[in-house]
Structures are given as C-alpha cells and as structure tokens.
Amino acid sequence: MKRNEQRKFVRDLSKALTDFTILSIRNKTIPEEWDGHELRAYMAELFNRAADISVIRTASRNQRARDYRNTLATKNL
What we know:
Order of helices and strands: HHHH
Helix content: over 70%
Number of helices: 4
Oligomer: single chain
Strand content: under 5%
Largest sheet: none
Mean pLDDT: 97
Number of strands: 0
C-alpha cells in the first residue's frame, strides 16, 4: 500500500468510526453522563471491533502477524 493510500485508509476508517459515534450521540444511544473517559473507551472498542476482521487478529500465529508484532517491537511503535 502506498503512503497516500495508507493516509486515505486511516482517514476513512477514523471518519467512519467518528461519524458513527456522533450519530450515536445525536440519537441518544450514548448516555448523556458519559464524559471523556467513557467516550475514549467506547472509541477504543469501536477500533478494536474494526480490527477484529484483520488476518493479524484472526490468524495471530501466521507469518504476517509475527512480522507485524516484530515490527512493533523493533521500531518502538
């Protein structure tokens, strides 16, 4: 994936999850008493759910997943 495609993917995914959260606030699905703590945790949960379709999560022992974890460790990400 080229750099511009990476940036577009991150923007699109973040926007979709942000839009979903804002719609949930508008629809009063999200409790009014939630502040930054709950909202932060909720957004993290949405990102986790979105990541669950990744082969890195579904086949965590395959080479791609091992390479990913190695890159995180060696590049201090």
